[in-house]
């Protein structure tokens, strides 16, 4: 019954191949063609958020006014406008820096927008809705989150990356050496 506890396992004749762990850190190679996609995504979403934030601040709505005011079909107040400006500027910084930073920033902010959509969906019509969200804001948050995630993951996360992709090369160094 418990013979496996008494006898140590015999080492296998073939040592196990050590699997490399892939992370989305800065040490991954930078492909300039992919960096263009990351920069474009960050810049486009940053521009949309900056425009929304500026239009919201021009309206001079109260900072935490929960009834808000409509700007470009979305509800807003001063806090949401300032938050939109800050995130838009952060995305523009990602666009300027580019590379893996822009990709990771797009993915992180995309997840944050999705989570914000779910949280604010739960807070609709409550006294805790300090950003004056309405259902159109929730849908906008989901759309921006998904777009940012697509722009950030493009070329980095896939089951069928081409063999000249730098992320595929980083994940399969043994195959790259054999192909040379």
Could you characterize what this model shows?
The protein is mainly α. The chain has a domain at 30-153. Helix content is 60%, strand content 3%. It has seven helices and two strands, in the order H-H-E-E-H-H-H-H-H. A two-stranded antiparallel ribbon has the order 1-2. Strand 1 and strand 2 (74-76) form a beta hairpin. Helix 2 (32-58) runs antiparallel to helix 3 (78-97) and helix 3 (78-97) runs antiparallel to helix 4 (99-123). The longest helix is centred in the N-terminal third of the chain and has 27 residues, at 32-58.
- Structural class call reads mainly alpha
Which descriptor suits the 3D outline?
elongated
Low-pLDDT runs: 23-28
Largest sheet: 2 strands, antiparallel
Cα radius of gyration in angstroms: 23 Å
Order of helices and strands: HHEEHHHHH
Q: What fraction of the residues are assigned to beta strands by DSSP?
A: under 5%
Number of strands: 2
How are the strands ordered across the major sheet?
1-2
CA distance, first residue to last residue: 51 Å
Number of alpha- plus pi-helical segments: 7
